[in-house]
Amino acid sequence: MEGERPSQHVLGDFVSDAPSEENAPRPTDEERHATWLELFFDLIVVVGTAQLAHVLHGEPSLRDVGQYILLFLAFWTIWMCLRSTATPPATGRAAGPC
Q: Is the pTM of this model over 0.85?
């Protein structure tokens, strides 16, 4: 239709900015996928978090909950720092804060 932006699609009276199938982005060879080492490291983090959850097994006291939160935050911080330094940055992005 005349006067409308090329990215808009008209369905009756409804105007959509969603891309159509012919304009949809196609995967490129430059797409980054997780390596086996990154997936393995993520699995270790899941197992570590599950092990930390054993602190809360049974009837946890307030001390147990505090201990879990402290240990989880330490574990999560280590994971984030290692992940941000071990993962190669995408083009134009700087490495993480750690």
A: no
Q: How many CA atoms lie within 13 A of 37 on its CB side?
A: 5
Spatial separation of the C-alpha atoms in residues 79 and 38, rounded to whole Å: 11
The end-to-end CA distance of the chain, in Å, is 52
Smallest CA-to-CA distance from 60 within 47, 48, 76, 71 is with: 71
Query: Distance of CA 86 to CAs 7, 35, 78, 80, 89, Å?
Result: 38, 11, 12, 10, 9
Query: Mean pLDDT by 10-residue block, N- to C-terminus, for the chain (98 residues)?
Result: 52 55 58 82 90 89 93 91 75 56
Domain boundaries, the chain: 35-87
